[in-house]
Each structure stands twice: as C-alpha cells, then as structure tokens.
C-alpha cells in the first residue's frame, strides 16, 4: 500500500498520507498537475523532450495523471462526482496541451513546414472551447443587408440574377434607351476603361447602374420575368454623407401581362416594411429615366420631427419603357413591367440610423462591431 500511496503523494501535498484524501487536497493536487503538465508540454524544445513529458504526465502505466486517477478512488464518496469532474477536465486540458505542443513542433520540422499555413482559419483549441483570443469577425453590414434583401424578395417570388461589373455601352445605355446624346453617357459621368471590349463590344466601362442586368436577363429568356440583382455600381461622384464613387444597388424587374404601377408600389412597400420591421411611408415623386415611363423617385420616410416628416431618396423606379422591351425582343403590346433600383447603402443606413454612408467603407471595427 505504501508504494501506491507514494505515487499519489503529489496530490496530497500538505496532508499526511492516509487512506482517505479530502476533496480540497485532491483538487489542489490536480491543479498543480495540470500546471506542471502544461508547462512541460509547452516548453518541450523537440520531439524527444515532448515524448518524455508525455510519458511523465500522460503515460498509461505510471504517468502522473494515472496516479491521480488512483487518488480519485480515495476521495470520500459524496465528493467523488466533483473530484471526477475536475479529473476529466484536467485530463482533457493535458491532452489538448500535448496536441498543441505536437502541432507546434511539427511546424518547426523542416520536412513539414512546407505545408501551407492558412491564416484565415480560426485558432484551434481556444476557438473550439468558445474562447476567442482573436475575436472572429462577422459579415459586413452591407453584406448582411444584401443577404436579407435577397431573402425578402425571394419570398415575393423574385430570383437573383447577376451581371458583370465591367459593361459595354449596349447594356449600360443603348438597350436602356439612353441615346448617345444623353448627359448620363458623358465620359466625365462614368468610369470608362482604356481598354476596349472583346470582339465588337466597343468601349467598356464600370457599370453605373444595375439596370444593365434587366437587359441581360430579358435577352436570355422570354417573359414572364421576376428577378432582382444586387451588386456594385460606379460613378465619379464626390464622396459625401449619401454618395460614394462605388456603391451597391438592388435592382428589381417584373415583366408579365397586366403589370401596373400599383404592383410596383405594393412590392416596394412590402419590401420596405419587411426590411425595416414596420410599415414605412413610401413616397413616389415624378421623375425621368430613359428606360421607364412613367418614372418616379422612391423616397422613404426617415424621421418625423415636430410633425414634419423628412424623406430620403432611396432610388428610382417606373414602368419599363416600351423601347426597352422592344430592344430585347419583347412585345410591348403583350407585356408590361415595372423596374426599380435602390441604393443598398441608403436602405441599410435607413434601418440602422447611420447618418453617413462613408462609415460603411472606413472599416473601423468600433463601427462595424455594432452590426
Ligand atoms: N438605374 C437607375 C439609377 O441608377 C434607377 C432605376 C432603376 C430607375 C430601375 C428606374 C428603374 O438611378
């Protein structure tokens, strides 16, 4: 008996060897064991040292953890669950420390250090244990908004379509009924690229609107059409609280028989109410876009102060111009449609009360972590 008691001596520090070990002494011994083992593993400079430490602490026959397990048997009955729980924790802790040390040494081993290291992976053990030494990030508020808008419009039956950010003049202007003489085509109003398109695509530019995707979709399929498209657009605007040279739009297009302006307003109102979580007043202001007739600017109520409501423009909308339908081979006598294009930054800012859209691009974690 003496020899086995001798083995559990580290757990009975300060207490005389006896058949029954008080819980406290057992726990203290475990903590010391955990500390000693962790530092032995983390300080092992090579594989041989680590193996020696492994045998000392985790050896199946006479390792110190094994000895502690025997000590567990001498803890009084009522204290056993608590002692056992802590024992298991220490065991897992030591095993994790061993794994970590093995990984560390493997990293320094020349044969295997050639393995690519992926710095984007979350830290191993801390991450699994729910401790985040480096806080993991999350989706950018604009990306969150885009995902949510897709979801809302999906429920209204709109599927997502995509288009390129580098566009030709046909899709960005011509097919949208924007003739060469139109001021929107001024080179100073656009980011034209120095390189021409492939084949006879002509001059190329960064798309100034997602309405390009309307054309791309209608060229490919017969009506009915019910799509949205979300993505970046570019305009040489000076940055201010509501403008930025690059921003995101959500484009919607519905073409079918008997589509009216009432459908447009209903969809926009449902859309805004779903996104903002409450009914929101939408205001249409008569406007002009070459590709819709009639055309409106879409405003959303932003705030009401002293009985006076302030509206902020979210984008444009209207009934698809017959010339656009003809440009893609649709018959304007057969089908009608509505289209809208809203600024994602503005919609997102409206929801969260962000006063300046430039915040979205500053990448200040104090701002971003609020979403
Ligand atoms: N493309 C327009 C813009 O960027 C918005 C719009 C989209 C207007 C669809 C009408 C219909 O300003």
Notes on the structure:
With 371 residues, the chain is of the alpha+beta class. It folds into two domains: 2-128; 141-368, BirA Bifunctional Protein, domain 2 (2-Layer Sandwich). It has helices at 2-7, 23-43, 47-58, 64-72, 80-108, 124-128, 141-155, 169-172, 212-220, 261-276, 322-327, 344-352, 359-362, 365-368; strands at residues 159-160, 166-168, 191-196, 203-206, 225-234, 246-256, 282-289, 292-305, 308-320, 336-343. A seven-stranded mixed sheet has the order 1-5-6-10-9-8-7, with helices on both faces. Helix 2 (23-43) runs parallel beside helix 5. The radius of gyration is 33 Å and the shape is elongated. Bound molecules: phenylalanine. Residues 209, 211, 289, 292, 315-318, 339-341 line the site of phenylalanine.
Task: Please summarize what this structure is.
Helix content is 40%, strand content 21%.
Which CATH-level-2 architecture of the largest domain? 2-Layer Sandwich
Order of helices and strands: HHHHHHHEEHEEHEEHEEEHEHHH
Estimate what percentage of residues fall within beta strands: 15-25%
Strand order of the largest sheet: 1-5-6-10-9-8-7
- Net shape: elongated
Q: What Rg is obtained from the alpha carbons, in whole angstroms?
A: 33 Å
């Amino acid at each position: 008996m003496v020899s086995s008691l001798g083995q559990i001596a580290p757990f009975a520090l300060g207490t005389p060897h006896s058949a029954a070990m008080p819980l406290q002494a057992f726990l203290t011994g475990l903590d010391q064991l955990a500390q000693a083992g962790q530092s032995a593993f983390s300080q092992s400079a090579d594989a041989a040292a680590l193996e020696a430490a492994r045998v000392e602490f985790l050896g199946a026959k006479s390792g110190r953890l094994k000895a502690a397990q025997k000590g567990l048997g001498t803890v009084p009955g009522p204290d056993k669950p608590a002692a056992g729980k802590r024992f298991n924790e220490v065991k897992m802790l030591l095993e994790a420390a061993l794994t970590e040390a093995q990984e560390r040494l493997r990293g320094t081993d020349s044969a295997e250090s050639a393995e690519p290291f992926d710095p984007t992976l979350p830290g191993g053990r801390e991450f699994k244990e729910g401790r985040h030494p480096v806080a993991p990030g999350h989706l950018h508020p604009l990306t969150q908004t885009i995902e949510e808008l897709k979801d809302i419009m999906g429920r209204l039956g709109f599927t997502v379509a995509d288009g390129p950010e580098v566009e030709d003049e046909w899709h960005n202007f011509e097919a949208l009924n924007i003739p060469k003489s139109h001021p929107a085509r001024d080179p100073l109003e656009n980011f034209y690229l120095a390189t021409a398109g492939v084949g006879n695509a002509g001059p190329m530019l960064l798309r100034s609107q997602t309405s390009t995707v309307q054309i791309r979709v209608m060229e490919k399929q017969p009506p009915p059409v019910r799509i949205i498209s979300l993505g970046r657009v570019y305009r040489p605007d000076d940055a201010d609280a509501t403008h930025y040279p690059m921003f995101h739009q959500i484009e919607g297009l519905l073409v079918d028989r008997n589509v009216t302006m009432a459908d447009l307003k209903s969809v926009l109102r449902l859309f805004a109410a779903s996104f903002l979580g409450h009914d929101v007043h939408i205001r249409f202001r008569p406007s002009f876009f070459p590709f819709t007739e009639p055309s409106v600017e879409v405003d959303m109520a932003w705030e009401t102060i002293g009985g006076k409501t302030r509206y902020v423009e979210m984008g444009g909308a209207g009934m698809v111009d017959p010339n656009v339908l003809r440009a893609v081979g649709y018959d304007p006598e057969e089908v009608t449609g509505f289209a809208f294009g809203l600024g994602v930054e503005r919609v997102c800012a409206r929801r969260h009360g962000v006063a300046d859209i430039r915040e979205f691009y500053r990448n200040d974690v104090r701002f971003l972590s609020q979403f």
